[in-house]
Design brief:
about 260 residues, TIM Barrel, eight-stranded parallel β-barrel, two-stranded antiparallel ribbon, about 40% helix, globular, binds indole-3-glycerol phosphate
């Protein structure tokens, strides 16, 4: 299964970073970090247009290379997303399959004061400290790769570090585990990681099993205004969009389009 490979690659790269930079070194930096915004989503507010989390990723296991590495200007993308007033920027930091890095996240943090989500396969508390030091305001916790105890511990540490936690679930069982662990933001992935198929009906079905005081983010495969209108009608609080924005030459116009606003000009 692809998820097992992703976790194995993450573990290997993590061990190398831990050997280079001991946790104590990261912890010592916490006291001197420049201020970053706090990220929160109000689950009760049915925002129109829907909140937007815009992703920066140059490659993925399902799509391969999405943008030409020669033209992958992540700081310009961050400026475009900032100009479009998205609610958060998601930055892939997984190195082997998504060709991301913490260095990209740090550079994006230098470029924008918008909150940044570190998009990675979080498997160790060390990664939360790394995220914080690099300038992230939020981290991703994927239920499928964590035990209940890890979920609880990582949520507590995120809270301590003032990092918001987006808890990702794919089915009713994982949603229940996310709720039990105390998640306040649940991301429902429309993409099935077993066969990469995308199904919005899944999100809409699962919405009903999430209490209304928990914010729900719909993730993956969102391409058109029709998709977004469907998710808005289902009471979803935010969308997380990667590929559609990465492929758009005029990113602010594409963001306006998905929000149901007329493109400028
Ligand atoms: O590019 P898309 O189809 O708009 O998807 C974005 C995001 O949902 C996807 O990158 C993602 C969802 N969950 C993840 C977990 C790890 C890495 C990546 C992801």
């Amino acid at each position: 299964m692809i998820l097992d490979e992703l976790v194995a690659a993450t573990r290997k790269n993590l061990q190398e970073r831990q050997a280079q930079v001991p946790l104590a070194v990261l912890q010592a930096q916490l006291a001197t970090l420049p201020p970053r915004p706090h990220f929160t989503l109000n689950a009760q507010a049915s925002d129109q247009p829907i909140k937007v989390i815009a992703e920066i990723k140059q490659a993925s296991p399902s799509k391969g290379q999405i943008v030409d590495p020669a033209t992958f200007d992540y700081q310009q993308i961050a400026r475009d997303y900032t100009a479009a007033h998205v609610d958060m920027i998601s930055v892939l930091t997984e190195e082997d399959y998504f060709k991301g890095s913490l260095a990209i996240l740090s550079a994006v943090a230098q470029t924008t004061q918008l909150p940044i989500l570190r998009k990675d396969f979080t498997i160790d508390p060390y990664m939360l400290y790394e995220a914080k030091v690099a300038g992230a305001s939020a981290i991703l916790l994927i239920v499928a790769i964590l035990t209940d105890a890890q979920l609880k511990d990582f949520l507590a540490l995120a809270h301590e570090l003032d990092l918001a936690a987006l808890v990702e679930a794919h089915d009713a069982d994982e949603i229940q585990r996310a709720i039990t662990a105390g998640a306040t933001m649940i991301g429902v992935n429309n993409r099935n990681l077993k066969d990469f198929s995308v199904d919005f009906n899944n999100t809409q079905r699962l919405r009903a099993s999430i209490p209304t005081d928990i914010a729900v983010i719909s993730e993956s495969g969102i391409q058109t205004r029709t998709d977004v209108a469907q998710l808005e009608a289902a009471g979803i609080n935010a969308i997380l969009v990667g590929e559609t924005f990465m492929r758009a030459t005029d990113k602010p116009a594409m963001i306006a389009k998905l929000r149901g606003q007329y493109p400028r000009g």
